[in-house]
Design goal:
With about 375 residues, this protein is α/β, with parallel strands linked by helices. It has 10 helices and 16 strands. The chain has a 6-stranded mixed sheet with strand order 1-2-6-3-7-14. It has a 4-stranded antiparallel sheet with strand order 4-5-16-15, with no helix packed on it. β10 and β11 form a beta hairpin. The longest helix has 25 residues.
Amino acid sequence: MIQRLLDALSGGISKLLRRPHVFPLSDRLLADALRLCAIPSPTEREMERAMFIAERLGALSLPYTIDEEGNILTRTGAVLGEDIGAEPLLIFTRLGSERWNPLESLGRLDLEYARGAGLADVLGPAALLSVVEAYAEGRLAAGRDIIFFFSALSFDDPESDAFKTVSEGKLRPAAAIGVQGFSLGALTSHSLGSCRTEIIVSEDSRPENENALVNTLLQLASQVQVAAAACAVPVYINRIEALGSRGHTPREGALDLELEASDKNMLDAAIERIRAITESFETGSRRNESGGISAAFSILSSIPPGDPEPSAGLVQTLKALMKELKIKAAENARPDPSSFLSTLGIPAISVGIASGREALNYDKVEIASIEKGRMLLERLISLLGA
């Protein structure tokens, strides 16, 4: 199946590589992204996409390791055949995407834009491959060891620690750069903490003409908003859904929420209030009404608020490079995986590779912006890796 998907892309990629402009390196980066985008995700340990990365590293005769979680690491010390003693620089990205689609992820190209479901997610791995090739081919040099980390784990998964392998012992970096697709020019000096939660509500034994579950979801949504406001924490409803078969009232529903805050204590307090509301709502429903309603609270993803102090120098360096390359900087506060490292005292920042936007069914990437994103990443790595 994967080969058929890649074959379907070959015509478009061949046209891309034959385009008569002067950016062959960014064209190659986009071609890799289109190939990665066509590979299904998420899968167990992201093995299909990991195989693509491993094959490319093998073709460059570069040693790499794949740990038990499926994460791939390669180092410039191995690339250059040297033992570089300075504290390493970490460059990281994620392999997977939750937005893969068997049709929309095949990708489409025209003169200005590339489109594909989850295409922005794979620009990061494609950009890391581009930088690794630059070192292997001698176009870039490093004065310190650089670790390239392709994570099979989601950085915000509350059940795992994606950075554990590369934040302890000899691998603990002096600084870190996260690479992602969108957006070129985005700059986060203080990353917000975020938590995505889900409340599943179900009931079994009410009369068919009583649509109590929908009312329950609406009441919960209202109470959750009040509770978060009391903690001065914004809450966003991503999804509110009641599931029922045709001709029958719903028996199960979901309330999907996302909270953001710059203060960890405020964020934790809001989460605990919502958890308590869920538990008390279930208890009250069981006590006061026939039949009974069950409600289950869970955390789907979590990112801590970042510490801006360790990364202040990185922010200024990135601003200066953007000005040099005539990239318009847009500084804002938002959740960022680099905050996992800044809370450990490691200077860390994320860099977007391209301009574009996420549409309902696919990402729309401005092809011309990729060259500036590639140059920005390589210059930042050269400065920090000196």
